[in-house]
Amino acid sequence: MLVTTDILFKEAVNSDYAIGAFNISNREFLVAIVLAAKESNSPLIIQVSESTVKFLGFDYISHLIGYADKFSENIPIVVHLDHSRRLETIVGAIRAGFTSIMYDGSHLPFEENVESTREIVKISKAVGIPVEGEIGKIGGVEEHIKVKEDEVIYTSVEEAVRFYELTGVTSLAVAIGTAHGMQKKNARINFQRLEEIHSKLPDVPLVLHGSSGVPKEDLKTAIRFGIKKVNIATELKMAMADGIKRILDGGAIEPRDYLNEGIENVKREVLNNIEILGSADRV
Asked: Where are the beta strands (DSSP E) in the chain?
């Protein structure tokens, strides 16, 4: 069943778990992710990037949202627009049935980020849709967004507090050492900075982007310091590719065979992350 992120965060914010936010690229990813959530009895956030919106189109995504709503049965799921910088995309997502959006103004100067985020919050909350904002610059490549290593800016405690108070966002993505698109476990989280932000904003769900480069034990520590939404994309893409390649290397040419193997691979990866984040049996 479709819900908004603020409903999921009500339970998570004072508990010892985080909710996985899993990016999809097509129907097969969605099927794998929802199957894993149903099997583990876990709340779920399905994420759609601007690049995926461009690839699939809102009409088709709207059908996927309806399918996910029915297929998930009693599992609460959010369909979330990830890393959007365009008002027209945000409005299109709301019309298509998304139940949460992220506006990414992190590339803007602080005051401009506040102003543009506040406007998006005003529009979205008027129709009951919560907004995730971002302060600081997270490194790496997130499909259409690239931040070089020398452009990374850690989130300051003072700006995190001011940004939250001035914008009214529901959740806050922070830059604390992770990077988008990493395939090796070598990201180092600045736990001191995270703990300081959490101490000033104890009831605010903090969001970790770029989790694919983070050792799993570090994810558990981050949850203790206020991370309540963990974005997961690269690991799922790798799992899908590995599953398909394994079947194709065996000489199969039937799409159902290699796509089903990709689905099973992604499902296993999602289940693994649900266990690490501690969200199983939270429904």
From this structure: 19-23, 44-49, 77-84, 100-103, 131-135, 139-142, 145-147, 171-174, 179-180, 206-208, 227-232
